[in-house]
Specification:
GO terms for molecular function: metal ion binding. This is Damage-inducible protein DinB. It is a single chain. With 165 residues, the chain is mainly alpha-helical. The chain has one domain: Four Helix Bundle (Hemerythrin (Met), subunit A) (Up-down Bundle). Helices cover 60% and strands 5% of the residues. The chain has a two-stranded antiparallel ribbon with strand order 1-2. Helix 2 runs antiparallel to helix 5, helix 2 packs parallel to helix 6 and helix 4 runs parallel beside helix 5. It is globular, with a radius of gyration of 17 Å.
Length: 165
């Protein structure tokens, strides 16, 4: 199989890395507004049908995004660690969300165009390309945000419009 040059990849691509980052960050801005919409107590305690509280889902999203990008950039396998040191504080959740958003921007600029089609084994267990891993980060966030919409509606709170990213 012939190796594709960065120039050829640029000609063949449908979306640029900058556009993909903006797409992801648009989802992150929307997820932030969903976090803001929750009453503090319910962010940490409200559950339906055995699903986790949204704060625990957010902890998962935080455990994936920056650590995953750090692994992509460094090429050093890290262990997936889902932790939440929120202290039942919505302000702390938002603070950590904002910090991770800034870190994503910094790490993103360290991924060369040629890396997006490179095969990796993220967290030592999830195989795919750099690009497919990033799509997973985005898809997983959308999935959990959908669960949060159900929670908000069950609390009689109108969630943010999903298309306003």
């Amino acid at each position: 199989m012939e190796k594709t040059t960065a120039t050829q990849q640029t000609m063949d691509q449908v979306i640029s890395p900058a556009q993909l980052l903006e797409h992801w960050q648009g989802h992150r801005r929307l997820t932030r507004r969903v976090i803001e919409a929750f009453p503090e107590k319910e962010l940490f305690e409200h559950q339906i049908g055995g699903m986790r509280p949204f704060s625990e889902m957010v902890a998962e999203l935080l455990a994936i995004a920056v650590p995953g990008l750090e692994e992509i950039v460094s090429k050093k396998t890290v262990e997936f660690r889902e932790k939440s040191d929120f202290g039942h504080s919505k302000a702390k959740v938002l603070e950590l969300w904002d910090e991770s958003t800034e870190e994503i921007n910094k790490l993103w600029n360290q991924i060369g165009l040629e890396r997006f089609q490179e095969y990796i084994k993220l967290f030592g267990q999830y195989e795919g390309t750099v690009q497919s891993s990033i799509f997973y980060f985005i898809d997983n966030e959308i999935h959990h945000r959908g669960q949060a919409y159900v929670y908000l509606r069950s609390l009689n709170i109108e969630p943010p419009f999903f298309y306003e990213r």
